[in-house]
Structures are given as C-alpha cells and as structure tokens.
UniProtKB/TrEMBL annotation:
This is Acyltransferase. One of its GO terms (biological process) is triglyceride biosynthetic process. GO terms for molecular function: 2-acylglycerol O-acyltransferase activity; diacylglycerol O-acyltransferase activity. GO terms for cellular component: endoplasmic reticulum membrane. The keyword Metal-binding does not apply. Belongs to the diacylglycerol acyltransferase family. PANTHER family: 2-ACYLGLYCEROL O-ACYLTRANSFERASE 2 (PTHR12317:SF74), DIACYLGLYCEROL O-ACYLTRANSFERASE (PTHR12317). Its main location: endoplasmic reticulum. The chain crosses the membrane at residues 20-43. It is a multi-pass membrane protein. It holds the Pfam family DAGAT. InterPro entries: DAGAT (IPR007130). It is found in: Endoplasmic reticulum membrane.
Length: 334
C-alpha cells in the first residue's frame, strides 16, 4: 500500500524536498538535458548562443583540470541549506587543519549519490569555511562529466574538479596552502555496495591516493560519513550474481556504475528516486603526516596505505556509537 504524505506537511519541509529533487535531477539527467539544449539551439534562431558557448568552451577547456572555478555566492545558496536540513547533514571536526598547508582527504563511503560529501564540500550549507577557516575544499569527479556543455560549468561552481593526476598536482602544489582536495576513494564501483547497514569499503587495492600524498608531501585526512549508505535501498546484487556481473561490465565500459536504487517519492513515502530523510554526519579525522617522496617505492606506498586504513578504522570505532552503528559492526575492506 502506498503511504502518501499528509496535506499538512509544513512549507519548510516541502521546500527541503524540492531542493533535494533538483539535486537528484542534476546528477541523473541534467547533463543529458544540457546536451539536448546545446544541440537544439543550433536549429533555432538562437543558434548563435551555442556557437558563442562552443567558442568559450574551447578557450576554457583546460579549466576543470586546473582547479576549476568556484562561485562562492552559489555555494552559499539557500537551496543548499534546505537540502542540508532535509536529511539533515552535519560536519564534525575532530582536529585542526593548518591553512598554510594543502591536504588530501579520502572520503568514505561513496554511497549511491554521495549526498553528504556533496553538501559538506561543494556547498557552505554545513559551514565548512567556518569550521576550517582558510581552507578551500575541492572534490574530484569523473572526467566524463566535464565533457558536457553547460553542465561542466555548473559542476565547477561548487568546487568539483577532474579526477586525474594533472588536476591533483595543480591543487596540491599551490603555493601558500589552504587547499583540501577530496577523493571518494571507493569511486563509482563502491556505489554498488551502498545499502542500509552496509559498511564494506572498496579500499584494499586502492592505493593511488596514498602515492599522490607521498609524491606531493601533503597530509592525508581520513573522512567518514555516517548515514551515507542509509539513504537508499538497492536491488539485491551480491557479488557473483548476474546483476552484479552486468553492472561490473557496464562500469568497465562506461566508467560509471549503475546501481538499481530506490527511495521515496515527492508526495508519497513508498517508492521513488528521492533519498530517505535520514541523518548524515561527516566526521573529519586527524591529518596523517606524510614525508615528501617524489618517487615513492611500492613498500612506502603500502606502509602509508595501511597507516591510513588503521586511522580510518580508529575514526569509525571512536564515533560509531554516536551515530547508531551497532557495537559489533566494523568496517570491511575489499
């Protein structure tokens, strides 16, 4: 039976739902919509708009690989405050970050759509700049999404940048410090494990971020978002099943994963693509000091990687009871 939302729902909550709806749309369909608009304009009297944009696009083509283009007033939009209150999302600080240094932060877990990570790093809804004054956050995203017209500019306004070594080097080597580069270590593939009660991270063989930290001599910051995997249910796709095999093959070809997820709707709570209203607490751990090693050996990478895993586990264990994680629940790595 479908459970409909009551008519008496306050306007505040309706605005929260609307803000999340536009965000879900932006990540599921906005890129495709932008392509349709770009091509469609060419066949109208407004064709010159697409031509002008194409010229701008060509001249600006390297920007996503050079740190992007943040727009502060958009990061501080009231839309994101409504989105933050929908769940709600909170940002928890456990240690200071020195604004004279640059940092590389590993975020876990990916979740289905990385809602908590987006709100905390790509907007000011949870007050990142107040908690960590002098630190400019950036978040890596698949290069594919920066190849869509208009959509690329939308992504950069929030501090999203491409996920490659060139971009990482540009940000982590900035003089004067004050930059934090976030990497969702498990990537799109980890989204296939995202479901309520799951704490399995794709981390065991993901060591590129540790090598980056060594090459540039920047501290590594472990970050864990409690509640991220609680936002959606997902069709059963256990390892070895035909669905997981199909999803893995598509991920190899397309570079993005396709989790079959579902949550609630706009006017009812029984089905839909909106996330459930469940709290997310993103806990930022203590930085791990790293000695600069331009050409690190595999042994050095492995040592730092294991140290990072240990610190991430310590962070999870120290805070899990505060966020209703069962005492006998521990992180799993694959």
């Amino acid at each position: 039976m479908v459970e409909f939302a009551p008519w008496s729902v306050p306007w505040e909550r309706r605005l929260q739902t609307l803000s999340v709806l536009q965000w879900v749309f932006s990540f599921l369909a906005l890129a495709q919509t932008c392509v349709i608009v770009f091509i469609g304009l060419l066949f109208t009297r407004f064709w010159f708009l697409s031509v002008l944009y194409a010229t701008w696009w060509y001249l600006d083509r390297e920007k996503p690989w050079q740190g992007g283009r943040r727009v502060e007033f958009l990061r501080r939009s009231v839309v994101w405050r409504y989105m933050k209150d929908y769940f709600p999302v909170s940002l928890v600080k456990t240690a200071e970050l020195d604004p004279s240094r640059n940092y590389l932060a590993g975020f876990h877990p990916h979740g289905v759509l990385a809602a908590g990570i987006f709100v905390n790093l790509c907007t000011e809804a949870t007050g990142f700049s107040k908690l960590f004054p002098g630190i400019r956050p950036h978040l890596m995203m698949l290069n594919l999404w920066f190849r869509f017209p208009f959509f690329r500019d939308y992504l950069m306004t929030g501090g999203l940048v491409t996920s490659d070594k060139e971009c990482a080097a540009h940000i982590l080597n900035r003089k004067g410090g004050g930059n934090l580069l976030g990497i969702i270590v498990g990537g799109a593939q980890e989204a296939l494990n995202a479901r309520p009660g799951a704490y399995k991270l794709l981390l065991r063989n993901r060591k590129g971020f540790a090598k980056l930290a060594l090459m540039h001599g920047v501290p590594l910051v472990p970050v864990f978002s409690f509640g991220e995997n609680e936002l959606f249910d997902q069709v059963e796709n256990s390892p070895g099943s035909w669905l997981r095999w199909t999803q893995n093959q598509l991920q190899k070809v397309m570079g993005i994963s396709l989790p079959l997820f579902h949550g609630r709707g706009i006017f009812q709570y029984s089905f839909g693509l909106l996330p459930y209203r469940r709290p997310i607490a993103t806990v930022v751990g203590k930085p791990i000091e790293v000695q600069k090693t331009p050409q690190p050996s595999q042994e050095e990478v492995d040592k730092l990687h294991q140290h990072y895993i240990d610190e991430l586990c310590n962070l999870f264990e120290a805070h899990k009871l505060k966020y209703n994680v069962p005492e006998d629940q521990h992180l799993e790595f694959c």
